[in-house]
Amino acid sequence: MRILLQFPEGLKQRALAHAEALEREGNEVFISASPTFGACDLALDEAKNIKADKLVHFGHGEFHHVDFNVEYVEYQIDAPLDLLQESLEQLRPFKTIGLSTTIQHVHQLEAVKAFFEQNGKSVVIGRPYGFAKKPGQILGCDMGSSASIDKSVDAHVYFGGGLFHPLGALLATAKPFLVIEPFAGKIEFIDRYREIYKKRSRGKILGSLEATRFGILVSTKNGQHNMNLGKLMKSKLEQNGLKAEILVANTFDFTSINNMMEFDAFVNTACPRIAIDDTDRLRKPLLSANELMEVIRMKSELASARV
Ligand code: SF4
Question: If you measure from the C-alpha of residue 24 to the centroid of ligand 1, how many angstroms do you get, rounded to a whole number?
């Protein structure tokens, strides 16, 4: 069988061993060297171009159904649980806590839950939601598991590496949010980011009020492609007397976007995290669809006030 292997950045170091194992079984194996951001980003074009019979995607569960033979190989990573004891002090004021994590540690959530329950907490784990398939699992673009239990908990606890995933969940919830990073040995409340991101969003909206020419980013990645939203945004802008063009790419390169100096602002329809996390990499404002609607609303209010 001809197989294309695809690894996210953190697992690319293991590509050779997996390729050799499959070759020993008699397969013809290729490895995708493209950047990979999630299961939204399947290397289907590469697989089809090399006439692969199968794409093996490592590190993520299925995001959405595609018309190709894809095998998902989830990677479970056992993180040390010793920081949990230390987190009890920070969690002292909270009786009921909600747990979340990523696909790599979701198999450990029951052990984390048992620890907190043995130490007098009530623990809630949100059901699988949207693109996430396991209880308590969150993705960078799907924090429904945390958001759905926000009203039932006094605080949220994310157990896992990095701030990318918990930041999304933080913005979708209102309760105190503790992050336990078992490999980095860090425990911190990240609530301050709610205000920081709110101010950043306000700044982008206000910075776009004079914009007249908008570039709308539409990705060709299979799980991020949203041409309908791109066209809707373009028509909304044009109905309001503004210029708009749709910019298409697989992975958006911020240097290239910065080179498009005729545009006054950009609108994201691809991975929703681009308009949250990557705004500092562009010289012009990069708006989400919701932020664009707010810009249009404020622009029309300003225009009426001037009449
Ligand atoms: S957060 Fe972005 S990169 Fe990650 S799965 Fe969602 S759309 Fe893909």
Answer: 33
